[in-house]
Every structure is written in structure tokens, then in C-alpha cells.
Write a structure and sequence with these properties.
9 helices, alpha/beta, about 40% helix, 15 strands
Length: about 290
């Protein structure tokens, strides 16, 4: 099944839920909510288990060792939902010395998101945005984030890659407002026009715009900037990075690379894939748009 087919299905479902029903479907709200929940379950649960099943730890370990541990601050802007990078950052580097938990200063990271609560059991405290050496901005949400349907406040539930995170949301195990109702997963479905009405997530988009506008290097790994992804296109247009002295793209598809050339110009350093990028790119201090197929 292609990305276009998936996006078309979820877009139609989104419009039907919004009251725009051009498909002669006589579903009541309860039936529609049930179908929508099951469609989300099929899509997000599949991605959740697929990411865990692959677990490309070595690649992510190399990413951390060869890029993020270099001097300076780094921002990773991702449209992925998975927790593979966070899992490596916590599992490999958070150590107990018999008295206390320690974490390397050069790898202290944060999501740049104001959580109303942090329910995970990992003994790691997020630094402030100014203190963090690594900023991870997940613009389409993350498997470990849930939000309250009433006040839209966001909670962080885990920092480990866990295939059961999304099923817990589906089974309404995560509760908010003193157990009044279920917390909803903060995941933006693959609709063609994304309606982002969660203030905390919208703030992430604003921060991403600000970061890109001031970066001096832009590294784009595996992201194709599809024509249907107008939000990402508008993000780059709005940011208008003026001080770039290095643009790097790791993507084997010439068509995808050519789309970035339209926005960023011809002076682009190109790599065939993520592995070649890690092995051959010598000095990497960058903002990264990342999408792993």
C-alpha cells in the first residue's frame, strides 16, 4: 500500500468526522468514532510494532557517537513517531554508579515541550531548552505522548521503545483528570492537510521555524518533502534560512533531492543513504529533518 493511498483514506475519514460527507455514508457518530479508532489502531499499532521489530540500534548508536557527541548544540526535527533514538540515548548512556544515576552532559536532551506530567519511571530529568545540548522536536507527535481531550495538556509516558505503548492508549489505560477519562495519543494521522489543534505541538512547529531560520547547517536524512506535505514545505518557506554554509541530503531518489534544490539552491552535499552519510560525512553539526521508511 502506497503512502498516497494511506493518506487518501485517512483524509476522507477526517473529512467525514468533520461533517463533510460526500461519500453517501449513513454512519452515526458512535459508529464513525468506532471505525476511526480501529483505523488508527491498525495504522499506529503496525508502525509501533514494526519499529520495535527492526530495532536498528547499531545505526542509531553510530548516529549518537559520530554526530551528537561532537561539540555544539544539535536539533533533530523529526516527523517520525518511534522512540528508537530516545531508547539509545537512555539505554546506552544513563548509568548507575552504586550511589546515583549519571548522564553525560554532552548528551543531555529534551523534547522542547512543556509536559503537564511525566509518568515514565526512567530516572532522567529533562533539562531546560537552554541547558540541553540536544533538542528533539517531533512535529507529528510521538508514541509516548498523550494529551487530555479537555484541556489539551500533554503527558510523557515512557522513554523506552516499547511495542505496547500504543495498545495501552487504545485500551484506555492512560487516564487523566483524576481518572475522569482516557488520555489520547498525541499522534497526527497521515492526512493530506494536518489539523494541529494541540497548543504544545503547535509551539513545536514555531520553535522548529525559529531554529531552521538561524541554523548554519541543514542536514536532511531520508525525508522526501512530498508534495502533499504542505506543512513541512511551508515550514521551510517561512524559516528562510539565510546563513547556511552547508546543506546535506542523504536520499537515493534524485526526484526528492531536486525538490529540495528548488527551495535551497544547487549547492547541496549528497549521500545515497543514512549509512553512507554516517561513514563519509566528516563534520556534522546540523538541524535534521528525518523520516525513516
Amino acid at each position: 500500500m502506497t503512502t498516497d493511498i494511506i493518506e487518501d483514506f485517512f483524509t476522507r475519514l477526517h473529512y467525514i468526522k468533520s461533517g463533510v460527507n460526500n461519500y453517501n455514508l449513513n454512519w452515526d457518530k458512535r459508529r464513525l468514532a468506532e471505525i476511526s479508532k480501529k483505523a488508527d489502531w491498525l495504522f499506529f499499532r503496525t508502525l509501533c510494532y514494526e519499529a520495535i521489530g527492526g530495532r536498528p540500534y547499531k545505526t542509531y548508536e553510530n548516529f549518537v557517537e559520530r554526530i551528537l557527541k561532537r561539540s555544539g548544540r544539535h536539533c533533530i526535527i523529526s516527523f517520525n513517531y518511534d522512540l528508537l533514538l530516545e531508547d539509545v540515548l537512555i539505554h546506552e548512556y544513563l548509568k548507575y554508579d552504586g550511589r546515583r544515576w549519571n548522564y553525560p552532559d554532552e548528551l543531555r536532551w529534551t523534547y522542547c515541550l512543556d509536559f503537564s506530567g511525566i509518568a515514565n519511571q526512567v530516572p532522567y530529568s529533562f533539562p531546560t531548552d537552554d541547558e540541553a545540548k540536544i533538542l528533539i522536536l517531533k512535529l507529528h507527535g510521538s508514541f509516548n505522548w498523550g494529551f487530555c481531550p479537555d484541556n489539551k495538556e500533554v503527558t510523557c509516558y515512557s522513554l523506552h521503545a516499547d511495542a505496547h505503548i500504543y495498545p495501552r492508549f487504545y485500551n484506555e489505560e492512560y487516564r487523566c483528570c483524576n481518572g475522569k477519562h482516557a488520555n489520547l495519543p498525541l499522534l497526527i494521522p497521515p492526512v493530506k492537510i494536518k489539523d494541529i489543534n494541540i497548543p504544545a505541538l503547535r509551539n513545536l512547529w514555531d520553535k522548529a521555524t525559529e531554529i531552521i531560520s538561524h541554523c548554519d547547517e541543514l542536514h536532511i536524512i531520508g525525508y522526501s518533502l512530498p508534495e502533499v506535505d504542505k506543512e513541512a514545505e511551508n515550514l521551510i518557506r517561512k524559516a528562510r534560512p539565510q546563513n547556511l554554509n552547508r546543506i546535506v541530503i542523504a536520499n537515493p531518489d534524485k526526484t526528492h533531492v531536486s525538490r529540495f534544490i528548488q527551495f535551497l539552491g544547487n549547492s547541496i552535499e549528497k549521500y545515497q543513504n543514512f549509512e553512507e552519510y554516517l561513514s563519509k560525512s566528516e563534520r556534522i553539526q546540523a538541524v535534521t529533518l528525518r523520516e525513516v521508511d
